[in-house]
Amino acid sequence: MFKRFISYYGPEKGLFIADTVCALTYAGIDLAFPIILRALTGGLFTEGAAAIMDGLLFLGLGLVGLYIVRTACIYFVSAQGHIMGARMESRMREDLFDQYERFSFAYFDAHNSGDMMSRVVNDLFDICEGAHHLPEWIIICGIKIIGALAILFTISPELAGALTLVTVVFVALMVRQNLHMRSVFADNRAKISEVNSQLQDSLAGMRVVKSFANEETERAKFRVANDRYLDSKVAQYKVMGSYQATSAVMTAMHYITIVLFGGYLVAQGQMTAVDMATFALYISLFTGPIETLVNSTEMFQKAIAGFRRMDEVLATAPDVQDKPGARALEVTEGAIEYRDVCFSYEQGEAAEAGAEVHPVIDHMNLSIKPGETIALVGPSGGGKSTTCALLPRFYDIASGSITIDGQDVRDVTQHSLRSAIGLVQQDVYLFDGTLRDNIAYGRPGATNAEIEDAARKANIHDFIASLPEGYDTVVGERGSRLSGGQKQRVAIARVFLKDPAILILDEATSALDNESEEAVQESLERLAADRTTIIIAHRLSTIKNADEIATVERGRVVERGTHEELLARGGTYARYYRMQFEGARARDVR
Ligand code: ADP
């Protein structure tokens, strides 16, 4: 984890070195200041008036020069240091986002989007505050402490020794408190992430919340998460408070030691009064940086808590990956073959963690001829959607093989595989942009003419043209300004533009009313022509149009044939058909 953290400094080497040099110079100047004062009080002021004036002029010019350099250094450390931190933060954010994009569906099934947002937004800020402040503080404070100690020891080893002892005792105490602080900050991160998750969930589901008039329930759930975060914050501030208090007691003990033990040494003639005054000056140079260092551990702990959460994501190997040297899929005809495929959602990480494994796809065999339209039917939960999700490798199978034109889907690049497959689902996701952008999502860079052509084929062009802003109409978040049927047709236009060789229609029309279904159905048929198509259908009309029907039950294909063949066989499909579709047909006829 540490190595990964350090690697983010790599591209900032130049800035980091310049920042370090400025921090060193600034610390050196601060350290020189009391020496100059000591020379003034102890040496220069004992000379005659003319010598003092000469000395003062020289000293004054020197001081102005030093302060100009010091100011420039402070500006550089503050501005450029923060800029360096911001750049590191930006790179970390990109890396985290890239990593999220590499994960398969299994990761998103298991992780909450509010938590993921929290890692990208909240945690990184803490990391980067630490990334640029910590090194500069360690340098500035380290030098000040070592320099001050060296000078203090030359003035009075006894008093310097006593002060060091006091410091060691208190620092040891604070290190102990620090360990506690780490767990408090980790808890804090987890709790803010819960707030984000709850917020995300409630806001995304606000339409459902309102339709059930469940605002009060949501508010209560949100309050629970919010109160937990508050409790965690309270615990955090208590720990921080006692930490600061310990640090304040240490400073007080330093001054008390100087006054009492220093006074004793002066009385004993082991130290002069000027030396004791110099000590009082230097001690702030000593205690100030110690306090800063001690306080910086708080920042350090926050940064560690944040980085740990980021590292957890970066260190997770995506479970679906391109093989080294994977080649692009070449679709020649579009033949699909599932051979003895087994799959369960609990395989891999979840199974290792001891989860019980329920096979969802159980030794499935299914071959689909080029250009054929095959309908998957069967009881809900039988594994139809899962069968479809395995083809574009949204999940990897446990055993067996899935091939497209003889190429195993695990041997080709995910990009080429998914470019060859078009997917229309019941739940359409539109991005909050214009209709044009949403259709063009199917093929970024498509021309307006191509977009319109796709919209025509999807039976949505006339509707779009009738809108005052036409293709520039903004659809709202998740396409909230469109009806279900319109959204579905935009999704179909997208796939027309993508022009894939293989098509998966996962209950694409099951949520639509009869009228919308008709318009969508027509465009779907146009889309499916000449493409190998798998349809998961709940509607009789869709199934009847398929070349073949496969009944999927408990993760296997139990029957296969045309509608008439399967009815004549009187097996599972016939039973299922009577149960499921005769009622539907009665409704359709009505
Ligand atoms: P169908 O499409 O035939 O209704 P599915 O393929 O959706 O069936 O589901 C098959 C089984 O897998 C069901 O028992 C379902 O609960 C389970 N399942 C589906 N998706 C997931 C998932 N993302 N994580 C865990 N289990 C799942």
Automatic annotation (TrEMBL):
PROSITE patterns, alphabetized: ABC_TM1F (PS50929), ABC_TRANSPORTER_1 (PS00211), ABC_TRANSPORTER_2 (PS50893)
Entry's transmembrane regions: 15-36, 56-78, 159-175, 248-267
Record-annotated ABC transmembrane type-1 domain positions: 17-302
Domain ABC transporter residue range list: 336-579
SUPFAM superfamilies (alphabetical): ABC transporter transmembrane region (SSF90123), P-loop containing nucleoside triphosphate hydrolases (SSF52540)
Domain of life: Bacteria
Pfam families: ABC_membrane (PF00664), ABC_tran (PF00005)
Name this polypeptide is given: ABC transporter ATP-binding protein
Source organism of this protein record: Collinsella intestinalis
